[in-house]
Specification:
The protein is of the alpha/beta class. It is 20% helix and 31% strand. The strands form eight sheets. A seven-stranded mixed β-sheet has the order 1-19-21-22-18-14-17, with helices on both faces. The protein has a six-stranded mixed β-sheet with strand order 8-5-7-6-10-9, with no helix packed on it. Helix 2 packs parallel to helix 7, helix 4 runs parallel beside helix 7 and helix 5 packs across helix 6. The radius of gyration is 30 Å and the shape is elongated. The structure holds adenosine monophosphate and magnesium ion. Adenosine monophosphate binds next to helix 4.
């Protein structure tokens, strides 16, 4: 991290493109090294410390994919239906012997295939005659309706990569392989502050010109969804000395210190000066809207990020700056945000060279196509604009205008965490 600040001075007052910021961050932040073993029950959202190689194949044994009748493909009827003696019956969970040539075996979904049998007729496709024989139609493909051992995952192959932020389906795979615990990195510890004389905590006495702190609650919720352990350190006054003490203290026992507010260039924006006095700082003017300057730095070896105070700017810069830093610190593989194509239902003009985000909700238009509807107002302080929408339309640096009907990229809020 210490490297980061030096390099970034090169950017001076220039606008830093979003991708450059993310690339710089991801390349420089080191992951926490401590690991711990967690039971599968507690593994959701944790970061896998080492690659998991499959100790077993999946499926564990060759089995039937349907309820029906198994036979040897050598015996498959070719030109016309044929009656087969039913020589056995295998239920799921039971052991199967070998199949006798020229016969069929009654079998159920998930039951092991009898030795020699490799093809299964679905019970819906057959009849049983008066003599109790099963009549199998011609034309089934050899190997139909059975699941060979290892077709899902071969023994010894990569089951889960190191750095995977474990999802329910990843945990299911580990369970299917018979594991009870996984080795994960310890959660990262993040200190969160709000700043500003005008900011007061909900539940406290509010002077007429004060507003309730919303950023801290938003940022804490976002960080929790990213699996962080949070220290909620309250609100700091616009006072450089007090800020310096609080931020220095927080840097001692956290992996990341995060603030909102006070990073603009006004005289009462003291976060910058404070971090400069106790550590090193770069002020990034990111080419992003909404989102004003974002401060990044290092205090006593601990990364620091100062987000803008306006709630929407704070939210958007969280997704593009804090999220990649948190993932890198946590040892998680980078998870680039993929804006998926959707039809714009709005016109929009923007500045070339800047990435802009339009808050939008989704609807299905009369022709059945999904489209994004822009929130009518644009202020970076409008919390309702985040509450009443489904996500962000991401308009790249090279876009200058959008016409209704154009394809644009859409990021659902859920994809940002
Ligand atoms: P600043 O970045 O400190 O100049 O603040 C920009 C705007 O965001 C101002 O209108 C602040 O009142 C507002 N703001 C700052 N911090 C918060 C917060 N924690 N919650 C809600 N609004 C805030
Ligand atoms: Mg302020």
């Amino acid at each position: 991290m210490a490297q980061l600040s030096d390099d970034c001075f090169a950017f001076g007052g220039k606008l830093l493109p979003v991708d450059d910021a993310v690339a710089l961050i991801s390349a420089r932040v080191g992951a926490v090294t401590e690991t711990q073993s967690v039971a599968l029950d507690d593994a959701d959202g944790r970061v896998l410390a080492e690659a998991l190689m499959a100790p077993l194949p999946l499926p564990l044994f060759t089995n039937s994919a349907v309820d029906g009748y198994a036979l040897r493909s050598a015996d498959l009827p070719h030109d016309a239906a044929r009656a087969f003696l039913i020589s056995g019956r295998v239920q799921a969970g039971a052991e199967a012997g070998a199949i006798a040539a020229g016969t069929a075996v009654r079998i159920f979904t998930g039951a092991p295939m009898p030795n020699g049998a490799d093809t299964v007729f679905m019970q819906e496709d057959v009849t049983v005659d008066e003599a109790g024989r099963v009549v199998l139609p011609a034309g089934l493909r050899p190997g139909a309706n059975m699941r060979p051992e290892g077709e899902d995952l071969a023994r010894g192959s990569l089951a889960l990569p190191a750095g995977r932020r474990l999802r329910p389906q990843d945990i299911a795979l580990a369970a299917a392989l018979g594991l009870t615990h996984l080795e994960v990195r310890r959660p990262i510890k993040v200190a969160v502050f709000s700043t500003g004389n005008e900011v007061v905590a909900p539940g406290e006495i509010r002077a007429p010109a004060q507003l309730y702190d919303s950023n801290r609650f938003m940022l804490i919720a976002l960080l929790k969804r990213l699996g962080c352990e949070i220290s909620d350190l309250g609100i700091l006054r616009d006072d450089r000395a007090a800020l310096s003490v609080a931020l220095s203290d927080a840097a001692q026992n956290h992996d990341l210190v995060l603030t909102s507010g006070g990073v603009s260039t006004g005289e009462e924006d003291h976060v910058k000066a404070s971090v400069e006095s106790i550590g090193s700082l770069v002020l990034w003017r990111m080419a992003i809207k909404p989102g004003r300057p974002v401060a990044m730095g290092v205090i006593a070896g601990t990364p620091f990020i100062g987000l803008p105070g306006n709630p929407v700017a704070s939210f958007v810069t969280f997704a593009y700056v804090v999220r990649p830093v948190v993932l890198a610190l946590a040892g998680a593989a980078a998870e680039p945000l993929h804006a998926l194509p959707i039809r714009a239902a709005f016109p929009y003009k923007k500045k070339l060279g800047r990435r802009e985000f339009v808050r939008a909700h989704l609807r299905i238009a009369a022709d059945g196509v999904h489209e994004a509807v822009k929130f009518p107002r644009e202020g970076a302080g409008l919390l309702s604009s985040l509450v009443e929408t489904d996500g962000l339309v991401e308009l790249g640096e090279d876009i200058e205008r959008v016409q209704p009907g154009d394809a644009v990229g859409f990021l659902a809020y859920a994809s940002l965490i």
